[in-house]
Every structure is written in C-alpha cells, then in structure tokens.
Helix-turn-helix domain-containing protein
Amino acid sequence: MATENEQMLLANVGRRIRATRVKQSLNLDQLARLTGISAPALSLIETGKRDARLTTVAKIAAALRVPLSTLMDDTPSGSDARTNDAAQGYDLGDYQ
C-alpha cells in the first residue's frame, strides 16, 4: 500500500501529465497512440491510481515533447528548497 507521500507524488505527476496533454489539445486516445500505452492505463496514471515506471513517464514526456523534468519536478521554479534540505545532512538513525 502506498504511503500518503507516495499517493501525493503520483497524483501530482498525473496532474502535470493531464495538464500538459490538455494544453496541447490531445485526448487520451491520441496520447495512447503516440505512446503505445493504452488509454485506460493513461487515465489511471493521470488520476494517480497507477504507479507508472520511470520509463513509462519518459515515453509520455517524449510524446508530449516536454522534458521529463516537466512532469516529475514538484519544486516551484527558482526554488532551492531541496538544496537547503540536503545541506542540513541526513539522520539515518531510524534506518539501522
């Protein structure tokens, strides 16, 4: 079962895929033809109900002619939040 963070990640990636597809005036059937991924599978990915492989998301990005990072990155442009988090170090005590 996916954690709440994983569910949020899947939903956000799916939302970005759908928004990009709609912006380009493509329907699910058209994207399915471009990617080789069935329309029902694409629908599940877009709604965050299916955990797509990275290679699948890369196919979708290629078909939509956008960088993979456009679909994956949840950091607002110009944000360095991840860099600041990494600078704080890691607490691996819980993973022993």
About this structure: The chain has one domain: 4-91. Helices lie at 4-23, 28-35, 39-46, 54-64, 68-72, 81-87.
